[in-house]
Amino acid sequence: MPRIDAGSLREHRAQRLEKLIDAAEAIMAEGGIEALTAGAVSARAGIARNSLYRYFDSIDDLVEIVVMREFPAWVEAVAQAVAAETNPHAKAVAYVRSNLEQAASGSHGWRTSLSRGALSSSARQRVREMHSCLTTTLDQIVAELGIGRPELTTAVVQAVVDACTRRIDAGDPPADVISYACDAAERILRV
């Protein structure tokens, strides 16, 4: 019977899973996808290599989890920022600002680069589906504004967010990019 380092087997497994994900994330942040091997992950996590496969079917599964790890907190931060506002214009600006603050505060750049090349096509589809929940929030705000051509408006505002996220990932000063993006969104949304 294996020794468990927690109050219950469930807690033990959750702790080990977290160690493995942390290890994989650190390895990829330091050395990219090329540095990620089962041996490297298990050594860094302090877990036997064969134990890794009790948690993941493959290294590809582990990469997908790392790429999407921050996304639920990102979505929650955007939802809270939007909910804190009372009028649709302020909600739209909060949507833009919050998305860019999340990009600036996390590890979006290297996660995005991983998602473009290291994920399977089905995993990339799951990432797109997760992103669509953010766009749904923007769709609702634009509908609330009553702007003509709402689909186009949503697409243009989201394009500003996406372009400015890339600028933050490229190293532009986040405060400048966020200010620019919020101003741009306000101009786009004037009725």
Automatic annotation (TrEMBL):
Q: Which residues bind DNA?
A: 37-56
- Show the stretches that span the lipid bilayer: none
Give the InterPro entries listed for this entry.
Answer: Homeodomain-like_sf, HTH-type_TetR-like_transc_reg, HTH_TetR
Name the keywords, alphabetized.
Answer: DNA-binding
Keyword Repeat on entry = no
User: Where does the source fall among the domains of life?
Assistant: Bacteria
- The HTH tetR-type domain extends over 14-74
Q: Which Gene3D superfamilies match?
A: Tetracycline Repressor, domain 2
**Record's protein name:** TetR/AcrR family transcriptional regulator
**Which SUPFAM superfamilies does the record cross-reference, listed alphabetically?**
Homeodomain-like
One Pfam family cited in the UniProt record for this chain = TetR_N
